[in-house]
Amino acid sequence: MKRGWIPIMGVCLVLSFSACKQLLPYQDTSLTAEQRAEDLLPRLTLEEKVSLMQNASPAIPRLGIKEYEWWNEALHGVGRAGLATVFPQSIGMGASFNDSLLYEVFNATSDEARVKSRIFGESGVLKRYQGLTFWTPNVNIFRDPRWGRGQETYGEDPYLTGQMGMAVVRGLQGPEDARYDKLHACAKHFAVHSGPEWNRHSFDAENIDPRDLWETYLPAFKDLVQKAHVKEVMCAYNRFEGEPCCGSNRLLMQILRDEWGYKGIVVSDCGAISDFYRPGTHETYPDKEHASAGAVRAGTDLECGSEYASLADAVKAGLIDEKEIDISLKRLLTARFELGEMDEQSDLCNGKPNYQKIMEIITIESKAFAALVEKIEKIATYVEVSLTKETEQQQVTDKKSRRKGEPWMTGQEVCEQLEISARTLQRYRTNRIIAYSICGRKIRYRRTDVEQFRERWMRETPDKQVDQMIEAHSLHGRKNRSYGKKRGDTGKNG
Asked: Which domain holds residue 150?
């Protein structure tokens, strides 16, 4: 009996050993996201690190890292990801002055986004506009109506913009005490970016009055960082006091990280790093290696673009130390662990799936899906009830318009039958030449009256005679009490 158990126990030990051998610290969901990032970071080569610092991050199969696309948008609902709920433009929602309502809008948006991402992720790849990191909201100040992207903002008021922006962030990211973040929001574009649009790749916002900087351009960003704890900040295209915003030590290090205590990710606007050296743009760096190194050292962790591919060469050339790259990459890895994006596949230990980890993620997404279904059902019910009411009202109107079983005609139908304009019909009606009735604030005409009118006026009377008879009518010379003018008066006399 005892010997019979030996082979079975041996197999179990082998399975247990092989399974646990696969479970590395960064795969352990009992650790914090930061701890897991710290363990994963040194396992990556320099080239792998650099590849993960671009918006289109490739898969690293040997470590179980899936392909991920950071670029996603949700200015007024989930953008560019198939059918989705569409809400008013940001400038319109800002006009409501209702940050509580805005929170509900983006709470619904994040429900929908999480479900969509889950469905997209079944293929194992999250492409552009399919991920969990949304570059929303735009909290720039709208100062010039000619700015082409002003509709993306919440207006010209710094306080209102801050309140609205915080509501967006909280709606997208979900409760701060949750096991995983619902989504990650992004405050953009940092900073002093309110147009012009045409020269944003070369424009230098210089000589900005300090009071204007701190009371107009920065308050909303500060609120989103310190009060709403936004997870991402996007640096702007333009320069600030001579430095590209994505390479501004003053903006990104001194103000954002040192003074405000920001710990999250800084992502570049798309193609902004290229503007560091390309002819006709900022031209503050000689080439892409210097530009990429300068951006990372200034605090830009993630590039929307492909210039960061040169960072490996920049390290070899001594332009930047690999440890400086590690600082940025740790933030990126931490964010992916916070979202649960790394944890969708079960890790095995002792032959058993980590059900706790799986259920935590599924719970988030199932709740989001249930909430989305509930909202869709409410909308469908509302539409159905509205259509029913409209049909009933139309039936009542039609019933009122039928007297003695005789059909009534609208003004348009009369004009078509008599081949006259609406203005001519109004003239006939004003001078009591054609009979009409008021039915529920709408003007209606008996079909028999119209036919009689056509027979009498259109067939037997020449047009000139019609005009003469109108002028000779007893009502023609009377004054209209509402307007103080004679009926038929052209207004030429005053």
From this structure: 24-378
